[in-house]
Amino acid sequence: MQFDAMALQSRLTGRRIGCRLHCEETVDSTNRIALELAQAGAPEGTVVLADRQTAGRGRMQRSWQSPPVCNLYLSIILRPTIPQQEASQITLMAGLAAAEAVSEACPEGRVGIKWPNDILIGGRKVCGILAEARTDRGKIDSVVVGIGLNVNMGKADFDPSHRETATSLREETGRNHSREDLFLSLCGRFEGWYEILERNGFAAVREGWLARAEMTGKRIRVLFGDEMREGMFAGIDRDGALLIADEQGVVSRITAGDATIIKE
Ligand code: BTN
């Protein structure tokens, strides 16, 4: 069944997230639409939700598989008053909120976050997050946080190249899930963590994120630009950058990139 905007809006209890809800049947990308709305002055908390995307965007210029009426595709507009170098705190916060919503729906699964914000169940990706910021004269004007959550997609629906590495809530729990309930749970947790981040800073978000970090105690490989680095995961710093320790114990910080866990 397609989303019913009125029914969803009436069940949203938060103060900000979902204050305006744009429910669409088919879009190219909810992030693209949200960025356009943000530019046109849409208030913080505006959400774009779609049943289907024809050009879903993933991180690192990848695409996001977005078949109709089985998953969640949404983008949330934020207007944080933080310096640009702290923007990654928002993406980590979003990952934590999404991991909690996933965990609630799949309590029997091992739900973890892989830096920066892939949500995994038992090591397979169930949810991806793409944050895109608009800046104005060096200051953040808005951040659009796009979340794609595989809800009722069957194994055969995944692109063959993702079949072994991706999963859905249905695959993990053996039952269908209500996209509406998941959407509301996600918005509620997002609102809660965003408020904590705003009021108290990054410390509690960092702690919650680290408690779910899939990479703890593992060897990782990170690709950033043309560079590649391998070493032990050494946490995240106060800005949300990834810390990686080499053989000599020298720690480097990486602000953006693609990380994989090295299986030994
Ligand atoms: C990733 O590569 O892991 C990030 C995927 C993000 C996908 C979501 S789906 C809703 C929103 N709209 C997009 O075009 N992308 C994000």
Describe this structure as you would to a colleague.
The strands form two sheets. A seven-stranded mixed beta sheet has the order 1-2-3-7-6-5-4, with helices on both faces. The protein has a five-stranded antiparallel beta sheet with strand order 11-10-9-8-12, with no helix packed on it. The protein has six helices and twelve strands. 27% of the residues lie in helices and 31% in strands. The protein has helices at 5-11, 30-39, 87-105, 169-173, 179-200, 203-211, and strands at residues 21-27, 47-53, 72-78, 111-114, 118-121, 124-136, 139-149, 219-224, 227-236, 242-245, 251-254, 258-261. With 264 residues, the chain is α+β, with helices and mostly antiparallel strands. The longest helix has 22 residues, at 179-200. The termini are far apart. Helix 3 (87-105) runs antiparallel to helix 5 (179-200) and helix 3 crosses helix 6. It has two domains: 5-211, BirA Bifunctional Protein, domain 2, CATH 3.30.930; 219-261, Roll (SH3 type barrels), CATH 2.30.30. Bound molecules: biotin (BTN). Biotin binds at residues 29-31, 53, 56-59, 62, 64, 73-75, 118, 128-130, 146-148.
